[in-house]
Fold:
Amino acid sequence: MKISAREWLGDMLDPGSFESWDRPPVAVDAAPGYRAELAQAERSAGTDESVLTGSGLLRGRLVAVIACEFGFLAGSIGVAAAERITVAVERATELGLPLVVSPTSGGTRMQEGTVAFVQMVKIAGAVAAHRAAGHPYLVYLRNPTMGGVFASWGSLGHMTFAEPGALIGFLGPRVYRALYGRDFPDGVQTAENLYRNGVIDGVVPVRVFRRIAHRALNVLCGPAAALPERQGDAREFDTGIGVLRAGSELYGPALRGADDMPAWQSVLVSRRGDRPGVRELLRHATDRVPLSGTGQGEADRTVVHALGSLRGQPCILFGHDRAGQSADQTMGPAALREARRAMHLAAELRVPLVLVIDTIGASLSREAEERGLAPEIARCLADLVTLDTPTVSVLLGQGSGGGALALLPADRVLAAANGWLAPLPPEGASAIVYRDTLHAPELAAAQGIRSKDLLANGIVDAIIPEYPDAADEPVDFALRTVSAIAAALADLTTKPVPELQSLRRNRYRRLGLLTP
Structure:
Protein backbone atom coordinates (compact mmCIF):
# COMPACT_ATOMS: atom_id res chain seq x y z
CA MET A 1 0.00 0.00 0.00
CA LYS A 2 1.42 3.37 -1.03
CA ILE A 3 1.26 6.24 1.46
CA SER A 4 -0.79 9.11 0.03
CA ALA A 5 0.28 12.73 0.33
CA ARG A 6 -2.49 13.48 2.82
CA GLU A 7 -1.63 10.40 4.89
CA TRP A 8 2.01 11.49 5.06
CA LEU A 9 1.04 15.02 6.07
CA GLY A 10 -1.26 13.59 8.74
CA ASP A 11 1.52 11.44 10.18
CA MET A 12 4.16 14.17 10.04
CA LEU A 13 2.31 17.22 11.31
CA ASP A 14 0.44 18.03 14.51
CA PRO A 15 -3.28 17.27 14.11
CA GLY A 16 -5.23 19.97 12.29
CA SER A 17 -2.20 22.22 11.74
CA PHE A 18 -1.72 21.85 7.96
CA GLU A 19 -2.48 24.95 5.90
CA SER A 20 -2.34 24.64 2.13
CA TRP A 21 -0.31 27.06 0.03
CA ASP A 22 -1.64 25.68 -3.23
CA ARG A 23 -3.31 27.75 -5.90
CA PRO A 24 -4.95 26.31 -9.03
CA PRO A 25 -2.31 24.69 -11.26
CA VAL A 26 -0.81 26.92 -13.94
CA ALA A 27 -2.08 26.29 -17.46
CA VAL A 28 -0.03 23.98 -19.66
CA ASP A 29 -0.18 23.25 -23.38
CA ALA A 30 -2.09 19.95 -23.41
CA ALA A 31 -3.65 17.92 -26.19
CA PRO A 32 -7.24 16.72 -25.65
CA GLY A 33 -6.10 13.23 -24.68
CA TYR A 34 -3.74 14.58 -22.04
CA ARG A 35 -6.44 16.90 -20.68
CA ALA A 36 -8.67 13.88 -20.24
CA GLU A 37 -5.87 12.11 -18.36
CA LEU A 38 -5.46 15.09 -16.03
CA ALA A 39 -9.18 15.19 -15.31
CA GLN A 40 -9.28 11.47 -14.57
CA ALA A 41 -6.17 11.75 -12.36
CA GLU A 42 -7.83 14.51 -10.34
CA ARG A 43 -10.94 12.38 -9.79
CA SER A 44 -9.01 9.25 -8.80
CA ALA A 45 -6.37 10.91 -6.61
CA GLY A 46 -8.56 13.57 -5.02
CA THR A 47 -5.90 16.22 -5.67
CA ASP A 48 -5.61 18.80 -8.45
CA GLU A 49 -1.96 17.97 -9.16
CA SER A 50 0.73 15.47 -8.21
CA VAL A 51 2.01 17.53 -5.30
CA LEU A 52 0.61 19.28 -2.22
CA THR A 53 2.41 22.16 -0.50
CA GLY A 54 1.86 24.23 2.58
CA SER A 55 2.88 24.73 6.18
CA GLY A 56 2.09 23.09 9.49
CA LEU A 57 3.32 22.41 12.98
CA LEU A 58 5.84 19.68 13.74
CA ARG A 59 5.65 19.25 17.52
CA GLY A 60 4.84 22.94 17.83
CA ARG A 61 7.37 24.20 15.26
CA LEU A 62 6.17 25.87 12.07
CA VAL A 63 7.64 24.14 9.00
CA ALA A 64 7.02 24.22 5.26
CA VAL A 65 6.05 20.91 3.67
CA ILE A 66 5.87 19.44 0.18
CA ALA A 67 4.39 15.99 -0.49
CA CYS A 68 3.98 14.13 -3.77
CA GLU A 69 0.78 12.22 -4.54
CA PHE A 70 1.55 9.03 -6.45
CA GLY A 71 -2.13 8.52 -7.24
CA PHE A 72 -2.00 11.50 -9.60
CA LEU A 73 -0.33 10.17 -12.77
CA ALA A 74 2.22 8.20 -10.73
CA GLY A 75 3.41 11.35 -8.96
CA SER A 76 5.00 12.57 -12.17
CA ILE A 77 6.27 16.14 -12.34
CA GLY A 78 5.26 18.41 -15.17
CA VAL A 79 5.31 22.18 -15.55
CA ALA A 80 2.39 22.84 -13.19
CA ALA A 81 3.68 20.55 -10.43
CA ALA A 82 7.21 21.97 -10.79
CA GLU A 83 5.90 25.53 -10.52
CA ARG A 84 3.96 24.62 -7.39
CA ILE A 85 7.04 23.05 -5.80
CA THR A 86 9.29 25.96 -6.75
CA VAL A 87 6.87 28.57 -5.41
CA ALA A 88 6.64 26.65 -2.14
CA VAL A 89 10.41 26.40 -1.79
CA GLU A 90 10.81 30.12 -2.52
CA ARG A 91 8.09 30.99 -0.01
CA ALA A 92 9.76 28.82 2.66
CA THR A 93 13.04 30.62 1.99
CA GLU A 94 11.41 34.05 2.20
CA LEU A 95 9.72 33.14 5.49
CA GLY A 96 12.86 31.53 6.89
CA LEU A 97 11.12 28.20 7.46
CA PRO A 98 12.68 24.75 7.55
CA LEU A 99 11.48 22.65 4.62
CA VAL A 100 10.41 19.01 5.02
CA VAL A 101 9.62 17.24 1.75
CA SER A 102 8.45 13.79 0.75
CA PRO A 103 8.80 12.83 -2.92
CA THR A 104 7.20 9.77 -4.43
CA SER A 105 7.17 9.74 -8.20
CA GLY A 106 7.74 7.82 -11.35
CA GLY A 107 9.77 10.80 -12.58
CA THR A 108 9.21 13.41 -15.27
CA ARG A 109 5.75 13.58 -16.87
CA MET A 110 6.21 12.01 -20.30
CA GLN A 111 3.10 13.69 -21.74
CA GLU A 112 4.86 17.08 -21.52
CA GLY A 113 8.17 15.93 -22.96
CA THR A 114 11.49 17.72 -22.58
CA VAL A 115 9.96 20.90 -21.19
CA ALA A 116 8.85 18.87 -18.16
CA PHE A 117 12.27 17.26 -17.88
CA VAL A 118 14.09 20.59 -17.58
CA GLN A 119 11.77 21.68 -14.77
CA MET A 120 14.06 19.71 -12.45
CA VAL A 121 16.67 22.43 -12.96
CA LYS A 122 14.24 25.08 -11.70
CA ILE A 123 13.34 23.06 -8.61
CA ALA A 124 16.98 22.23 -7.84
CA GLY A 125 17.91 25.90 -8.14
CA ALA A 126 15.22 26.91 -5.65
CA VAL A 127 16.36 24.23 -3.20
CA ALA A 128 19.99 25.33 -3.57
CA ALA A 129 18.99 28.93 -2.72
CA HIS A 130 17.03 27.70 0.31
CA ARG A 131 20.07 25.79 1.57
CA ALA A 132 22.43 28.67 0.83
CA ALA A 133 20.27 30.88 3.04
CA GLY A 134 21.04 28.50 5.91
CA HIS A 135 17.60 26.88 6.18
CA PRO A 136 17.28 23.12 6.83
CA TYR A 137 16.02 20.90 4.00
CA LEU A 138 14.95 17.43 5.16
CA VAL A 139 13.85 14.67 2.76
CA TYR A 140 11.73 11.54 3.29
CA LEU A 141 11.60 9.35 0.18
CA ARG A 142 8.42 7.28 -0.24
CA ASN A 143 7.79 4.22 -2.37
CA PRO A 144 8.58 4.65 -5.22
CA THR A 145 10.87 7.60 -5.98
CA MET A 146 12.44 7.35 -9.41
CA GLY A 147 13.97 9.24 -12.32
CA GLY A 148 14.42 12.99 -12.42
CA VAL A 149 12.69 13.53 -9.07
CA PHE A 150 15.23 11.35 -7.27
CA ALA A 151 18.02 12.89 -9.35
CA SER A 152 17.08 16.46 -8.36
CA TRP A 153 15.14 17.67 -5.33
CA GLY A 154 14.89 14.14 -3.90
CA SER A 155 18.68 13.98 -3.47
CA LEU A 156 19.47 17.46 -2.15
CA GLY A 157 18.54 16.97 1.50
CA HIS A 158 20.84 17.96 4.32
CA MET A 159 19.70 14.58 5.57
CA THR A 160 17.68 12.00 3.69
CA PHE A 161 15.64 9.08 5.03
CA ALA A 162 13.36 6.65 3.25
CA GLU A 163 10.31 4.47 3.77
CA PRO A 164 11.15 0.81 4.50
CA GLY A 165 11.10 -1.31 1.36
CA ALA A 166 10.81 1.70 -0.94
CA LEU A 167 11.86 1.38 -4.57
CA ILE A 168 14.32 4.20 -5.16
CA GLY A 169 16.51 4.73 -8.19
CA PHE A 170 17.20 6.60 -11.38
CA LEU A 171 16.11 4.26 -14.17
CA GLY A 172 12.87 2.38 -13.45
CA PRO A 173 12.83 -1.43 -13.74
CA ARG A 174 10.20 -1.38 -16.51
CA VAL A 175 12.20 1.14 -18.57
CA TYR A 176 15.42 -0.83 -18.00
CA ARG A 177 13.72 -4.03 -19.22
CA ALA A 178 12.38 -2.25 -22.31
CA LEU A 179 15.77 -0.73 -23.18
CA TYR A 180 18.05 -3.66 -22.41
CA GLY A 181 15.83 -6.72 -22.75
CA ARG A 182 16.59 -8.05 -19.27
CA ASP A 183 15.52 -7.39 -15.72
CA PHE A 184 17.34 -4.94 -13.49
CA PRO A 185 19.41 -6.78 -10.83
CA ASP A 186 17.35 -7.59 -7.75
CA GLY A 187 17.84 -5.69 -4.52
CA VAL A 188 19.78 -2.74 -5.97
CA GLN A 189 17.09 -0.05 -6.10
CA THR A 190 15.84 -0.44 -2.56
CA ALA A 191 15.95 1.97 0.34
CA GLU A 192 17.84 -0.56 2.43
CA ASN A 193 20.54 -1.08 -0.20
CA LEU A 194 20.99 2.66 -0.70
CA TYR A 195 21.41 3.04 3.06
CA ARG A 196 24.02 0.26 3.19
CA ASN A 197 25.94 2.01 0.42
CA GLY A 198 25.88 5.46 1.97
CA VAL A 199 23.44 7.13 -0.44
CA ILE A 200 20.81 7.92 2.22
CA ASP A 201 21.00 8.32 5.99
CA GLY A 202 18.46 5.78 7.16
CA VAL A 203 15.34 3.69 6.54
CA VAL A 204 12.51 4.38 9.00
CA PRO A 205 8.70 4.53 9.16
CA VAL A 206 7.05 7.95 8.85
CA ARG A 207 6.35 8.24 12.60
CA VAL A 208 10.03 7.64 13.35
CA PHE A 209 11.05 10.18 10.71
CA ARG A 210 8.77 12.67 12.48
CA ARG A 211 10.86 12.22 15.63
CA ILE A 212 14.11 12.43 13.70
CA ALA A 213 13.01 15.64 11.94
CA HIS A 214 11.96 17.11 15.31
CA ARG A 215 15.37 16.33 16.81
CA ALA A 216 17.22 17.71 13.81
CA LEU A 217 15.27 20.96 13.87
CA ASN A 218 15.80 21.30 17.63
CA VAL A 219 19.53 21.24 16.97
CA LEU A 220 19.51 23.44 13.89
CA CYS A 221 16.85 25.98 14.84
CA GLY A 222 16.66 25.80 18.62
CA PRO A 223 13.84 24.20 20.64
CA ALA A 224 10.28 25.06 19.61
CA ALA A 225 7.47 25.60 22.09
CA ALA A 226 7.01 21.99 23.12
CA LEU A 227 3.65 20.28 22.64
CA PRO A 228 2.79 16.90 24.16
CA GLU A 229 3.90 14.16 21.78
CA ARG A 230 1.48 11.54 20.60
CA GLN A 231 1.62 8.21 22.43
CA GLY A 232 4.31 5.99 20.99
CA ASP A 233 6.41 8.85 19.61
CA ALA A 234 8.52 9.09 22.78
CA ARG A 235 9.82 5.53 22.81
CA GLU A 236 13.49 4.88 22.26
CA PHE A 237 14.67 4.18 18.74
CA ASP A 238 17.73 2.15 17.87
CA THR A 239 19.42 3.97 15.01
CA GLY A 240 22.34 1.60 14.55
CA ILE A 241 24.66 3.94 16.47
CA GLY A 242 22.88 3.31 19.73
CA VAL A 243 19.62 4.10 21.44
CA LEU A 244 18.32 7.65 21.37
CA ARG A 245 17.46 8.85 24.85
CA ALA A 246 16.98 12.12 26.68
CA GLY A 247 20.17 13.90 27.70
CA SER A 248 22.09 13.05 30.82
CA GLU A 249 23.21 15.39 33.56
CA LEU A 250 26.70 16.47 32.58
CA TYR A 251 29.53 17.92 34.56
CA GLY A 252 32.88 19.40 33.68
CA PRO A 253 35.76 19.48 36.14
CA ALA A 254 38.54 21.85 35.22
CA LEU A 255 40.98 20.47 32.69
CA ARG A 256 44.47 19.90 33.96
CA GLY A 257 47.75 18.66 32.57
CA ALA A 258 48.34 14.94 32.12
CA ASP A 259 50.37 12.97 34.58
CA ASP A 260 53.89 12.16 33.51
CA MET A 261 53.00 8.80 31.94
CA PRO A 262 55.56 7.42 29.47
CA ALA A 263 54.50 7.78 25.85
CA TRP A 264 54.65 4.04 25.20
CA GLN A 265 52.38 3.40 28.16
CA SER A 266 49.83 5.82 26.68
CA VAL A 267 50.00 3.94 23.38
CA LEU A 268 49.27 0.64 25.10
CA VAL A 269 46.45 2.15 27.17
CA SER A 270 44.87 3.69 24.07
CA ARG A 271 44.68 0.25 22.46
CA ARG A 272 42.56 -1.36 25.16
CA GLY A 273 39.52 -2.97 23.59
CA ASP A 274 37.21 -1.64 26.29
CA ARG A 275 38.35 1.98 25.98
CA PRO A 276 35.37 4.34 25.37
CA GLY A 277 35.16 5.82 21.90
CA VAL A 278 33.01 8.15 19.85
CA ARG A 279 29.91 6.02 20.38
CA GLU A 280 30.14 6.63 24.12
CA LEU A 281 30.27 10.37 23.49
CA LEU A 282 27.22 10.19 21.22
CA ARG A 283 25.23 8.44 23.93
CA HIS A 284 25.41 11.67 25.91
CA ALA A 285 24.24 13.87 23.02
CA THR A 286 20.64 15.04 22.93
CA ASP A 287 18.38 15.34 19.89
CA ARG A 288 20.80 13.08 18.06
CA VAL A 289 20.16 12.25 14.40
CA PRO A 290 22.46 9.64 12.82
CA LEU A 291 23.91 10.36 9.39
CA SER A 292 25.38 7.76 7.08
CA GLY A 293 27.69 7.69 4.11
CA THR A 294 28.82 10.30 1.65
CA GLY A 295 25.43 10.68 -0.01
CA GLN A 296 27.24 9.69 -3.20
CA GLY A 297 27.26 5.91 -2.97
CA GLU A 298 30.01 5.33 -0.44
CA ALA A 299 30.01 4.38 3.22
CA ASP A 300 32.85 3.44 5.55
CA ARG A 301 31.97 1.59 8.74
CA THR A 302 35.13 2.75 10.50
CA VAL A 303 33.56 6.18 11.07
CA VAL A 304 30.29 7.55 12.43
CA HIS A 305 28.68 10.95 12.19
CA ALA A 306 25.57 12.57 13.55
CA LEU A 307 23.76 15.81 14.20
CA GLY A 308 23.11 16.55 17.87
CA SER A 309 23.51 18.79 20.88
CA LEU A 310 26.22 18.51 23.53
CA ARG A 311 24.99 20.21 26.70
CA GLY A 312 22.81 22.48 24.61
CA GLN A 313 25.53 23.23 22.04
CA PRO A 314 24.37 22.16 18.53
CA CYS A 315 26.95 20.54 16.27
CA ILE A 316 27.74 18.06 13.55
CA LEU A 317 29.88 15.34 15.14
CA PHE A 318 32.11 13.10 13.02
CA GLY A 319 34.65 10.62 14.29
CA HIS A 320 36.63 7.44 13.95
CA ASP A 321 34.76 4.46 15.39
CA ARG A 322 37.14 2.19 17.29
CA ALA A 323 34.41 -0.50 17.34
CA GLY A 324 34.49 -0.66 13.54
CA GLN A 325 38.26 -0.90 13.14
CA SER A 326 40.58 -3.89 13.06
CA ALA A 327 43.83 -4.89 11.42
CA ASP A 328 41.77 -6.00 8.40
CA GLN A 329 39.30 -3.11 8.53
CA THR A 330 40.89 0.34 8.43
CA MET A 331 39.63 3.67 7.19
CA GLY A 332 39.65 4.23 3.46
CA PRO A 333 38.98 7.16 1.11
CA ALA A 334 35.22 6.91 1.66
CA ALA A 335 35.71 7.70 5.36
CA LEU A 336 37.40 10.95 4.42
CA ARG A 337 34.71 11.79 1.89
CA GLU A 338 32.18 11.24 4.69
CA ALA A 339 34.24 13.62 6.81
CA ARG A 340 34.08 16.23 4.08
CA ARG A 341 30.32 15.78 3.84
CA ALA A 342 30.15 16.50 7.59
CA MET A 343 32.34 19.60 7.11
CA HIS A 344 30.18 20.97 4.33
CA LEU A 345 26.96 20.22 6.23
CA ALA A 346 28.24 22.07 9.29
CA ALA A 347 29.22 25.10 7.24
CA GLU A 348 25.99 25.23 5.27
CA LEU A 349 23.75 24.64 8.29
CA ARG A 350 25.85 27.15 10.28
CA VAL A 351 26.50 24.87 13.23
CA PRO A 352 29.90 23.98 14.71
CA LEU A 353 31.80 20.86 13.70
CA VAL A 354 33.24 18.40 16.24
CA LEU A 355 35.82 15.87 15.03
CA VAL A 356 36.90 12.84 17.06
CA ILE A 357 40.26 11.23 16.29
CA ASP A 358 40.72 7.59 17.29
CA THR A 359 42.30 5.60 14.49
CA ILE A 360 44.85 2.82 14.10
CA GLY A 361 45.68 4.32 10.71
CA ALA A 362 44.39 4.63 7.18
CA SER A 363 44.06 1.70 4.82
CA LEU A 364 47.23 0.48 3.12
CA SER A 365 45.86 -1.18 0.01
CA ARG A 366 45.76 -0.97 -3.73
CA GLU A 367 42.07 -0.04 -3.60
CA ALA A 368 42.74 2.84 -1.20
CA GLU A 369 45.50 4.18 -3.42
CA GLU A 370 43.44 3.91 -6.59
CA ARG A 371 40.40 5.56 -5.01
CA GLY A 372 42.39 8.58 -3.89
CA LEU A 373 43.24 8.19 -0.20
CA ALA A 374 46.09 10.71 -0.23
CA PRO A 375 44.20 13.41 -2.16
CA GLU A 376 41.25 13.05 0.24
CA ILE A 377 43.55 13.64 3.22
CA ALA A 378 44.81 16.78 1.51
CA ARG A 379 41.27 18.00 0.79
CA CYS A 380 40.23 17.44 4.40
CA LEU A 381 43.16 19.51 5.62
CA ALA A 382 42.43 22.32 3.17
CA ASP A 383 38.72 22.31 3.99
CA LEU A 384 39.28 22.36 7.75
CA VAL A 385 41.79 25.18 7.75
CA THR A 386 39.38 27.39 5.79
CA LEU A 387 36.02 26.07 7.04
CA ASP A 388 33.36 28.72 7.56
CA THR A 389 32.17 27.53 11.00
CA PRO A 390 33.65 26.94 14.48
CA THR A 391 35.54 23.66 14.88
CA VAL A 392 36.67 21.45 17.76
CA SER A 393 38.91 18.42 17.36
CA VAL A 394 39.28 15.76 20.07
CA LEU A 395 42.24 13.35 20.16
CA LEU A 396 40.38 10.61 22.01
CA GLY A 397 42.77 7.71 21.66
CA GLN A 398 45.07 6.50 18.91
CA GLY A 399 46.14 9.12 16.39
CA SER A 400 48.10 7.26 13.76
CA GLY A 401 49.14 8.74 10.44
CA GLY A 402 47.39 10.83 7.82
CA GLY A 403 43.96 9.50 8.76
CA ALA A 404 44.35 11.19 12.15
CA LEU A 405 45.96 14.34 10.79
CA ALA A 406 43.04 14.81 8.38
CA LEU A 407 40.71 15.57 11.32
CA LEU A 408 43.14 17.62 13.42
CA PRO A 409 43.07 21.30 12.27
CA ALA A 410 40.51 23.10 14.41
CA ASP A 411 39.88 26.23 16.44
CA ARG A 412 40.23 24.15 19.63
CA VAL A 413 42.08 20.87 19.91
CA LEU A 414 41.46 18.75 22.98
CA ALA A 415 43.29 15.54 23.89
CA ALA A 416 42.52 12.72 26.30
CA ALA A 417 45.38 12.22 28.72
CA ASN A 418 46.32 8.97 26.98
CA GLY A 419 45.64 10.20 23.47
CA TRP A 420 48.59 10.43 21.10
CA LEU A 421 49.40 11.64 17.59
CA ALA A 422 52.20 10.34 15.37
CA PRO A 423 53.10 10.05 11.67
CA LEU A 424 53.14 6.26 12.12
CA PRO A 425 52.47 3.83 14.94
CA PRO A 426 55.66 3.65 17.06
CA GLU A 427 56.33 0.15 15.69
CA GLY A 428 56.32 1.56 12.16
CA ALA A 429 58.71 4.36 13.10
CA SER A 430 60.99 1.79 14.72
CA ALA A 431 60.92 -0.33 11.58
CA ILE A 432 62.03 2.65 9.49
CA VAL A 433 64.78 3.82 11.82
CA TYR A 434 66.04 0.53 13.27
CA ARG A 435 64.61 -2.09 10.88
CA ASP A 436 62.80 -3.77 13.77
CA THR A 437 59.90 -3.00 16.11
CA LEU A 438 61.83 -3.44 19.34
CA HIS A 439 62.61 0.26 19.62
CA ALA A 440 58.96 1.36 19.52
CA PRO A 441 58.95 2.62 23.16
CA GLU A 442 62.10 4.61 22.51
CA LEU A 443 60.71 6.18 19.34
CA ALA A 444 57.40 6.99 21.02
CA ALA A 445 59.27 9.00 23.67
CA ALA A 446 61.61 10.70 21.21
CA GLN A 447 58.90 11.83 18.78
CA GLY A 448 56.82 13.74 21.35
CA ILE A 449 53.58 11.92 20.56
CA ARG A 450 51.86 11.93 23.98
CA SER A 451 49.26 14.48 25.02
CA LYS A 452 51.57 16.33 27.40
CA ASP A 453 54.13 16.88 24.64
CA LEU A 454 51.43 17.90 22.17
CA LEU A 455 50.22 20.49 24.67
CA ALA A 456 53.74 21.85 25.18
CA ASN A 457 54.23 22.16 21.42
CA GLY A 458 50.97 24.01 20.84
CA ILE A 459 49.34 21.17 18.90
CA VAL A 460 46.59 20.70 21.47
CA ASP A 461 45.00 23.34 23.68
CA ALA A 462 43.87 21.32 26.71
CA ILE A 463 44.03 17.83 28.14
CA ILE A 464 41.01 15.87 29.35
CA PRO A 465 42.13 13.89 32.41
CA GLU A 466 41.77 10.15 32.87
CA TYR A 467 41.68 8.67 36.36
CA PRO A 468 43.94 6.90 35.55
CA ASP A 469 42.57 5.25 32.41
CA ALA A 470 39.38 6.02 30.49
CA ALA A 471 38.61 2.31 30.18
CA ASP A 472 38.33 2.10 33.98
CA GLU A 473 35.78 4.96 34.15
CA PRO A 474 34.03 4.98 30.76
CA VAL A 475 30.88 6.87 31.73
CA ASP A 476 32.64 9.53 33.79
CA PHE A 477 35.27 9.98 31.09
CA ALA A 478 32.62 10.35 28.38
CA LEU A 479 30.72 12.93 30.44
CA ARG A 480 33.93 14.81 31.18
CA THR A 481 34.82 14.85 27.47
CA VAL A 482 31.37 16.01 26.40
CA SER A 483 31.56 18.81 28.97
CA ALA A 484 34.95 19.89 27.66
CA ILE A 485 33.69 19.94 24.07
CA ALA A 486 30.58 21.89 25.06
CA ALA A 487 32.67 24.45 26.95
CA ALA A 488 34.89 24.93 23.90
CA LEU A 489 31.85 25.33 21.63
CA ALA A 490 30.26 27.85 23.99
CA ASP A 491 33.41 29.95 23.84
CA LEU A 492 33.94 29.66 20.09
CA THR A 493 30.38 30.56 19.14
CA THR A 494 30.78 33.99 20.75
CA LYS A 495 33.47 34.90 18.22
CA PRO A 496 32.93 36.02 14.61
CA VAL A 497 33.69 33.25 12.14
CA PRO A 498 36.11 35.38 10.05
CA GLU A 499 38.13 36.00 13.20
CA LEU A 500 38.21 32.26 13.93
CA GLN A 501 39.33 31.51 10.38
CA SER A 502 42.16 34.04 10.64
CA LEU A 503 43.33 32.69 14.00
CA ARG A 504 43.14 29.13 12.70
CA ARG A 505 45.30 29.87 9.67
CA ASN A 506 47.83 31.81 11.74
CA ARG A 507 48.01 29.04 14.31
CA TYR A 508 49.12 26.45 11.77
CA ARG A 509 51.29 28.97 9.95
CA ARG A 510 53.40 29.46 13.11
CA LEU A 511 53.30 25.90 14.42
CA GLY A 512 56.77 24.48 15.05
CA LEU A 513 58.65 27.75 14.65
CA LEU A 514 61.07 28.50 17.47
CA THR A 515 60.08 32.19 17.42
CA PRO A 516 56.54 33.50 16.73
The longest strand covers residues 391-399. The CA atoms of residues 298 and 405 lie 21 Å apart. The radius of gyration is 25 Å.
